[in-house]
Design a protein that fits this description.
Elements: H1 2-19, H2 27-32, H3 39-50, H4 53-67, H5 72-100, H6 106-114, H7 117-150, H8 154-202, H9 206-214, H10 236-248, H11 254-262, H12 266-291, H13 303-306, H14 311-316, H15 321-355, H16 365-391, H17 398-422, H18 428-447, H19 459-480, H20 486-493
C-alpha cells in the first residue's frame, strides 16, 4: 500500500511538471509564473515552503521534548507573525515595488532599489552559501522517516527526493512548483490532523495524554511537577527565541518573500493572507502540538544516543501501515515543496544576479532559462552531497543547520528589505553593515561556539540576535553615512503614488 501511494504521488508530481512546461519558456515565467499566480496557489506555496521535514521532524521533536506542550507557542507565532503579519506588512509593498523595479529576485531588488550592483552580488553570494545547509537539513529529516517506514538506506532517500524534485522543477519552473505545492498543502492539512488524532489515541486520548505528560519529570530540566504540560513550559526565555527565529525570520528569507513577487492582484493578497494564516495554524500549530507529547515515548527513544531527530519517527512507528503511508507522503510533500522553492531561488539568484552581466555578457532569455535549469541540478547535487557528509559528522541535529541558515539570511536581509519598502532614508552602507554583521556572527557561531556567551551558543539564539540587531544597525548606520540619491529613491517610491482606476465597490470616491 505504501509503495502504491508513493508511486501515484510521484506520477502526479512529474505529470504537473511536464504540463507546466508552457509557463516556463522565459525568465519571468520560469521564476515567477508570469506574476499571475492566484491567492490559493500563492498562499499554499508560502505555507509549504515554510513548513518541511525541518519543522515536522526536527523542530517539533526537539522543542516538544525541551518545552513540552508549550512548544505549541512556536506554531502560534508562525501563524500570527510568520504568516499574518508578514503578508500584511510586506505583501502589498513587495508586490508593488518589485514589479515597478522589474526585479525577479531579492538581490535584484537591492540593486535597483539602491542603485548598487555590489549589493546584488553580495546578497546572491549569501543566499547561495547559506541555502545549502538549509537544504541538507531537509534531506536529513526525510531520511529518518523513510528509514522507519521502509528501512531504506539514507543515500537512496536523498537520491529519490533530489531526482524527483529536479524533474518537475526543471520542467515546469515556478508554476509547476506552485501547483504541486497546492496539492502537497492539502496532503499536509489532512495528514497532520490525522497523525495527531492517531498518536493521541494511542495514549488513551487527549486528556489521558495530557495527564500523562503532566506526570513526566526531568530533574535536569526542572523540578516543578507538571512543568511539561504547563502554559509556558520549563524554559520560557529560550522558547521565546525559538518563536522569534521561526516566525520573524521568514520576513527575510528570499524563498518566502519571493512568493509576494508572483501574486496576481489586490484581492489575491487579501485572500492569500487569510488562507496562509489558517494553513499555518493547522500545520505549524499541529506539528509543535504533536511534538509536545514526545516525552510520553521516552521509554522507546534514546535522545542521548539517537538525537532529537529520532523522537517524531519513534512516536509514529507504532501506527498502522496506512497511517504511516500517509505520514511519509505528508513529510515528503512538505520537504519537496520547500526544496523546490529553495532551488528555484538559488538558481535564479546565481543566474540573474551573479553570472548575467558579470561573467556572461549579453545572455539571451532562452540561455538564462537554460542556465537556471542547469544550476538547479548543480545546487541539488551539492546539497545532497553535503547532506550525506553532514549525516556522518558532529552536526547531528536538524535544528542546528536550520538555525545557522535562517540566522544568516534573515539577519542579513530582514531589516534592509523591510526598511527599503517603507523608508527613503536607508543607505547602501547600512545594508552592507547588516549583511556583514549577520554573516560574521553566524559563521563565528559555527567555529567558535564555546567562546560565545551561554545564551548565544545556540544557533537559534544567535540567529535571533542577528535579526534584532539588524533592526537597529540599518537606521543607525543610515543616519551616519552618505544619504541615498534623491532621484533614485523618489523614482522607487513613485510606484506607491501611482493612481489607478478601481471599481466603485473598492473605493467610494468623492462624489
Amino acid at each position: 500500500m505504501k509503495l502504491v501511494l508513493l508511486g501515484l504521488y510521484f506520477a502526479v508530481l512529474i505529470g504537473i511538471g511536464l504540463y507546466c512546461r508552457k509557463h516556463a519558456t522565459d525568465v519571468d515565467g520560469f521564476v515567477l509564473g508570469g506574476r499571475n499566480v492566484g491567492p490559493w496557489l500563492t498562499a499554499f506555496a508560502y505555507g509549504t515552503s515554510y513548513f518541511s521535514a525541518v519543522v515536522f521532524i526536527g523542530y517539533a521533536g526537539q522543542f516538544g521534548w525541551k518545552y513540552g506542550i508549550a512548544a505549541t507557542w512556536a506554531g502560534i507565532g508562525n501563524a500570527l507573525i510568520g504568516s499574518l503579519l508578514a503578508w500584511f506588512i510586506l505583501g502589498r509593498r513587495t508586490r508593488i515595488m518589485s514589479r515597478h523595479l522589474d526585479s525577479a529576485t531579492m538581490p535584484q531588488f537591492f540593486e535597483k532599489r539602491f542603485g548598487a550592483p555590489s549589493l546584488k552580488i553580495g546578497a546572491s553570494i549569501i543566499i547561495f552559501i547559506f541555502m545549502i545547509p538549509y537544504t541538507a537539513s531537509l534531506y536529513n529529516g526525510l531520511s529518518r522517516l523513510f528509514g522507519m517506514a521502509f528501512s531504506i538506506d539514507y543515500s537512496a532517500c536523498i537520491l529519490l527526493m533530489a531526482v524527483l524534485t529536479a524533474i518537475y522543477v526543471i520542467a515546469g519552473g515556478y508554476m509547476a512548483t506552485a501547483i504541486n505545492d497546492f496539492i502537497q498543502g492539502i496532503i499536509m492539512l489532512i495528514g497532520i490532523v490525522a497523525v495527531i488524532a492517531a498518536v493521541l489515541e494511542s495514549k488513551g486520548g487527549f486528556l489521558a495524554a495530557l495527564d500523562g505528560l503532566a506526570r513526566v519529570t526531568d530533574d535536569k530540566v526542572a523540578t516543578t511537577p507538571g512543568i511539561f504540560a504547563s502554559f509556558f513550559g520549563p524554559d520560557p526565555l529560550n522558547l521565546l527565541f525559538v518563536v522569534i527565529l521561526t516566525s520573524l525570520g521568514t520576513w527575510g528569507l528570499p524563498q518566502m518573500v519571493q512568493k509576494f513577487y508572483a501574486i496576481k492582484d489586490e484581492q489575491a493578497i487579501q485572500k492569500g493572507t487569510i488562507i496562509s494564516t489558517l494553513f499555518a495554524v493547522v500545520v505549524a500549530g499541529g506539528c509543535y502540538f504533536l511534538g509536545g507529547f514526545g516525552r510520553l515515548f521516552s521509554d522507546q527513544v534514546n535522545v542521548a544516543k539517537d538525537g532529537f531527530d529520532s523522537i517524531i519517527p519513534t512516536m509514529l512507528s507504532g501506527l498502522s501501515e496506512g497511517m504511516i503511508a500517509l505520514i511519509v507522503i505528508l513529510v515528503l510533500s512538505a520537504s519537496m515543496s520547500t526544496l523546490s522553492s529553495l532551488v528555484i531561488v538559488s538558481s535564479s539568484t546565481l543566474t540573474l544576479d551573479l553570472l548575467k552581466d558579470n561573467f556572461i555578457k549579453d545572455m539571451s532569455e532562452a540561455r538564462q532559462v537554460l542556465v537556471m535549469r542547469l544550476l538547479i541540478v548543480v545546487f541539488i547535487a551539492i546539497s545532497a552531497i553535503l547532506a550525506m557528509v553532514q549525516y556522518k559528522s558532529s552536526v547531528n541535529f536538524i535544528a542546528q543547520l536550520m538555525g545557522i541558515s535562517w540566522g544568516a539570511m534573515a539577519g542579513s536581509f530582514l531589516a534592509p528589505f523591510m526598511y527599503a519598502l517603507y523608508s527613503k532614508k536607508i543607505t547602501t552602507a547600512s545594508c552592507w553593515a547588516c549583511f556583514l554583521f549577520a554573516c560574521a556572527l553566524m559563521t563565528a557561531n559555527i567555529f567558535f561556539r564555546p567562546e560565545f556567551p551561554t545564551i548565544l551558543q545556540s544557533p537559534i539564539n544567535s540567529g535571533v540576535a542577528a535579526m534584532l540587531a539588524g533592526m537597529v544597525i540599518v537606521p543607525v548606520v543610515s543616519a551616519f553615512t552618505a544619504k541615498p540619491d534623491t532621484h533614485l529613491t523618489e523614482a522607487a517610491f513613485s510606484c506607491y503614488e501611482e493612481e489607478i482606476l478601481v471599481p466603485r465597490k473598492t473605493a467610494l470616491g468623492k462624489k
